[in-house]
Amino acid sequence: MIENLSPQESWELMQQNPVAVMVDVRTQMEHAYVGHPIGAVHIPWKEAPSWETNPNFVAQVTRLVPEKDRPILLLCRSGQRSLAAAQALEQVGYTRLINIVDGFEGALDGNKHRNTLSGWRFCGLPWEQG
User: Fold this and answer.
1) Intra-chain end-to-end CA distance of the chain, in Å
2) What H or E segment, with its residue span, contains residue 58?
3) CB 82 within 8 A of CB 40
4) pLDDT > 90? residue 45
5) What's the whole-number mean pLDDT along residues 87-101?
6) Of the candidates 101, 98, 88, 26, which has an alpha carbon nearest to the alpha carbon of residue 62?
7) Which residue of 23, 44, 85, 87 has the fewest C-beta atoms within 10 A of its own C-beta?
8) pLDDT digits over 58-86, tens only?
9) In degrees, to the nearest 5, what angle opens at C-alpha 83 toward C-alphas 103 and 73?
10) CATH 3.40.350.10 for domain 2-128
11) Where are the alpha helices (H) located in 1-130, listed in sequence order?
């Protein structure tokens, strides 16, 4: 079963469970230029320009986290790609999957801007660029 946690709940889980791993499933450009949580490992679910699912995603995560019961937190821009990535990992037997709802940038506000309502950055959690 995939657990959905807020950015704050995800941060608390990582503080309480140091073996937990966060995987940023966004594109390389998003990860580097928009920013990412400190310590997040970048493994894209989809990548520009084709936007096709990364055929090596599951294998790359398996190399990073061979233990199927180790907590893996998945993060994207707003929580949709990360959910799809979590579902792919669930299909190969991972049992402790956490989708970070609202992702790194959160939902769009009335002006179609992100980072104003929700998300990792909006919550003031540790992040960096580059």
Assistant:
1) 33
2) helix 57-64
3) no
4) yes
5) 98
6) 88
7) 87
8) 999 999 999 999 999 999 998 899 999 99
9) 65
10) no
11) 7-16, 28-29, 57-64, 81-91
Tokens (6 digits) for 16: 């309480």
Tokens of 107: 């939902």
Beta carbons within 10 angstroms of residue 82's beta carbon: 28
Instruction: Return the amino acid letter for 31.
Output: H
Q: What are phi and psi of 86, to 5 degrees?
A: -60, -40
Half-sphere exposure of 5 (CA within 13 A, CB side): 21
pLDDT at 1 over 90: no
Phi, psi at residue 10, to the nearest 5°? -65, -45
- The C-alpha R_g of the chain, in whole angstroms, comes to 14
70 Cβ neighbours under 8 A, 6+ residues apart: 19, 20, 21, 96
Of 78, 94, 91, 96, nearest in space to 13 by CA = 96
